[in-house]
Structure formats: C-alpha cells, structure tokens
Design goal:
Blueprint (H helix, E strand, L loop, with lengths): L5 H21 L8 H18 L13 H21 L7 H19 L6 H8 L1
Amino acid sequence: MRFIPTKVHGILDYVVGAALIVAPWLFGFAGVGGPAVIIPIVLGVGLIVYSLFTKYEWGPFGFIPMPVHLVFDIVASLFLALSPWIFGFSTEAPNVWVPHVVVGVAVIIVVLFSQPQPASVKATARA
C-alpha cells in the first residue's frame, strides 16, 4: 500500500518545507504573530534541514535513515496539526489555523503511503 517512492517524497519534502516558511504571508496571517507564525516557519526550516541529511535521492548529506525521517515527519505533522489548540490560536480566523491542520494531516497521509526505503536500497537488499 506504500506507493509513493522516496524520490517523489523527497520533492514533496522541499516543496512543503518552502510552503511552510511562506505560509504566514501566503495565507495572510503573518500579522497575528506568535506561535501561529513561528511554528510553520520553524517546521519548514527543520523539514528542509533534515531532508538534506536523509539517505534518499534528494539528501546530499544522507545519513538519516528514511524510516527515521518518516518518524520525524509524523511527529512534526502531528505537532503542526494540533498546534492551534496547544497554543490557543484555534479561535482566530480560519485562514490562521486551517493551514496548520490541513498541511499537518496531508503530510501524515503522505507518510502513510510513502515507501520506507529508496529503490537503490531495496535493490541492494534483493541482490
């Protein structure tokens, strides 16, 4: 059931990381300040950094195993999705908290369908 190759997952990592960094301005909640703004920016930067160090096609400094990367994704995404309630900004306008929840849940879904090893590792294991 895991049909998203790590090569595609890696591209999504960098796209989602960049989108999280610009989300406060993209969705118009930069003026709210506080955790609503800081959390997506920090998680976006973090996602890009640990992606650079993941052992997959898009990780130039690869030493983090892909299964560990997927655990990081799940933990960060749960935190992102729950952050409006943890930090109390769920009562703000929907453009503030909905992106946190939608992106968090979407990344969890992507992780559930992502392959836990790059194709090169699977091929080596079969040989």
